[in-house]
Amino acid sequence: MNDRKRQVMEAAHTLFVEKGFVRTSVQDILDKSGISKGTFYNYFSSKKELLISIFEKIKMETDQRRMEVLAGRQANDKNAFIEQIQVKMEISKENKLFALFYGVLMSEDEELKGLVQQYHFDELCWAQKRIAEVFGEQVRPYSVDLAVLLYGMVQNAIHFAVTAGAEIEINSIIAYSLRRIEKIAENVVKAKDQLFDPDIVERLEPEEALNRKKKKESLFNQIDKIKKSADEEQKELLSFLKEELQSSVPRRALIYAVMSQIDQKKKLEHLVDEVLRFNT
């Protein structure tokens, strides 16, 4: 992401938190970021697309920091899981995510409201998968139940601690909740006591979204694989390509221009076409 685009996103982020999404105009963003209207529309088709890009950036940062936490550690490392949950809470606080969500919920934009719901849903899906990795395959049939209970415990404990003025570290709350979940997991496995079928996760996610996610994952994995043996110039091109493809509205002409300069483009062409097809 270039400095000018980052500058626009940071200015808009601040305004969306302070004034709310609805009350912030494109002109407000232009004034705060010090850019022209033409430059703004070169990056974003609307303030709505800009907000979506901010959400995507926050999600990407969360995913990246969580991967860094797990690097060199086993997937079933409970302390790593605790740290990964804490990462999400730290990033939410840093980005004042609650204020951004509130601004969306006060709007009449159903697409944006759906995006907020999907954001929470994706977090639950992540927790469900990690719970199965941490506690073993035997808990997978109960993993959605356990994810719902875990987040319910953590969020309510934090809310109570703040209200009561109790000085308890967030990681202590997460660790305590996870210990309780571990005991619950042992009991539900033994009793075969299930509330939600784990398949509900895929059923609730739109088929098109699932397909798009799988295509993107395959493409990004292939890009990362090519980067390992590429020279510095090719790595830079591949990094730029990946970043542009992660955008909410990828610039097709620019993507294909970059693709023409990539040595192993044949390995990427089909996947790039498939991913872009979902954005038409």
Write the layout of secondary structure elements.
Layout: H1 3-19, H2 26-33, H3 37-43, H4 47-70, H5 78-94, H6 97-105, H7 110-135, H8 143-164, H9 170-191, H10 200-204, H11 207-227, H12 232-245, H13 252-259, H14 269-277
Helix pairs in contact: 1-2, 1-4, 1-6, 4-5, 5-9, 7-8, 8-9, 11-12, 11-14
Fold and architecture overview:
The chain is mainly alpha-helical and 280 residues long. It is built from 14 helices and no strands. The protein has helices at 3-19, 26-33, 37-43, 47-70, 78-94, 97-105, 110-135, 143-164, 170-191, 200-204, 207-227, 232-245, 252-259, 269-277. Helix 1 packs across helix 2 (26-33) and helix 1 (3-19) packs across helix 6. The protein is globular. The mean pLDDT is 89.
Would you kindly provide a brief summary of this structure?
The chain is mainly alpha-helical.
Helix segment count? 14
Structural class: mainly alpha
Identify low-pLDDT runs: none
The biggest beta sheet reads: none
Give the strand tally. 0
Proportion of residues in helical segments = over 70%
End-to-end separation = 23 Å
Indicate the overall shape: globular
Overall pLDDT level: 89
Rg, Å, rounded: 21 Å
Strand content: under 5%
Order of helices and strands: HHHHHHHHHHHHHH
Name the features:
single chain; 280 residues; mainly alpha
